[in-house]
Design goal:
- By secondary structure, the protein is α/β, with parallel strands linked by helices.
- It is 32% helix and 22% strand.
- A hairpin with a 2-residue loop joins strand 1 and strand 2.
Length: 220
């Protein structure tokens, strides 16, 4: 069981509530995970966000999640992704000060993908690009997504009726970036969470998983 630690951090609209999850060994990187839309029940404890956290912890990353403005104990009100991106940038700065030698990966689900693509664009423009992005249920056509690096890992449900697959393909086609489609999966990946963990771990460049890791990745 990995160690978790709650934290509060000053954001653009007041205090932000968050959690850091630590791997069992010395971290090889930092990952920031962004949750789905706060006005529709999205929190940092959303099951897809937690799956992303557990995946990165399994890869040896120290993972930070926050509740966006107006969620849980985080102060402020929803800012349509603009203030949320600013807040995630503050978390990025804080974590890079704590772990200055480590690369930083960005991961998000649904509305969180909108935040992370714009944070990635901002970091790249500043000359401090993210190591890699993982986007699950990318919010194409729901919000104005930024273009993404070619090595981004995208995972989408075949039967997503919140963000239809065709919208994601329309967004990705000009960028010539592929997406992993999980057959039968809805927007929230009910009974399909193991696919998220398995694919991210396999594609992260570890040179293959051990039998034990494969078994772990298969469990929802």
């Amino acid at each position: 069981m990995n160690k978790s630690e709650k934290f509060t951090l000053a954001g653009g609209a007041g205090q932000m509530e968050g959690v850091i999850d630590y791997p069992e060994s010395e971290p090889r990187g930092v990952a920031l995970v962004a949750h789905p839309h706060p006005l529709y029940g999205g929190t940092m404890d959303n099951k897809v966000a937690v799956t992303l956290m557990r995946t990165f912890v399994g890869l040896g990353y120290v993972v930070a999640r926050i509740n966006f403005r107006g969620v849980g104990q985080s102060e402020g009100v929803h800012d349509h992704g603009l203030g949320e991106t600013d807040d995630m940038a503050i978390v990025h700065h804080w974590m890079t000060e704590k772990y200055p030698a480590l690369p930083v990966a960005l991961a998000g689900f649904s509305f969180g993908t909108f935040v992370q693509t714009h944070l990635a664009k901002r970091l790249a423009a500043a000359g401090t690009p993210a190591e890699r992005l993982v986007l699950v249920g990318a919010a194409a056509k729901k919000w104005e997504m930024a273009d993404i690096p070619a090595d981004t890992i995208l995972i989408h449900g075949e039967q997503d009726d919140t963000i239809p697959l065709r919208d994601v393909l329309d967004w990705l086609r000009p960028q010539d970036i592929p997406v992993i489609v999980i057959p039968g999966a809805d927007h929230f990946f009910h009974r399909k969470l193991g696919h998220i963990k398995r694919w991210v771990m396999q594609l992260w460049g570890r040179g293959g998983l051990t039998e034990a890791e494969t078994d772990t990745a298969s469990a929802d």
